[in-house]
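Can't paste images in this forum, so I'm doing it all in text. The chain is below; anyone willing to post the predicted structure tokens underneath?
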Amino acid sequence: MLEQLKPVQFFLDKTPGHALFVPEITALLPQAKIIHLARDPRDTTASLLAASRGWGSKWAPDSARKAVRMWWQHVSSVRKASKNLSPHQFLEIHYEDLHRDPVSTLRSIMQLLGLEWTDDAIKLAVSANAAEELRQDRGTPIPLGGEHGKLNHRVVREPQDFIRRARPGAWREDLNWLERLQIQFMLWKIAPEWKKYARS
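Text version of the structure:
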């Protein structure tokens, strides 16, 4: 895939599991940029539980406890690895900030990547890739290369129900009282710096 890139192109991989292998990725690809999209663990848990009941049934955890543990494993792994990366190579953004102020948040990503996009161009990209546009398969196509691309029509095709509510705080509608209690307990136990989410 990398060999097919033109000088002005980027290779993007958004596989969450790669959060566990940041040192290996940066050793293999020293020019790689790591963008960590952190998210409220309650929304992440709700998303994982929904995936476990459908398109992600083969890998997604089927309980709130397991989901929070998976979330924390990924977040802590990235943050540990980031200590060895420069600000020119690593950026952490929050899903909630991306939703609240997409232009400023995406501008910081453009700066990391050395791209010069105007605010109007960013607004246009955000509008073209709104959740409803993606649900209707009308978002900006993401090309696929290599053998994977040959098998998948050369563009990314997300599974049905991949795009859900696409807004912060949807966990309030998705999680029952027991799941909320389990998340609270797990946050206090394994991720004390995130326990503010257990109170709000």
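The mean pLDDT is 89. The radius of gyration is 18 Å.
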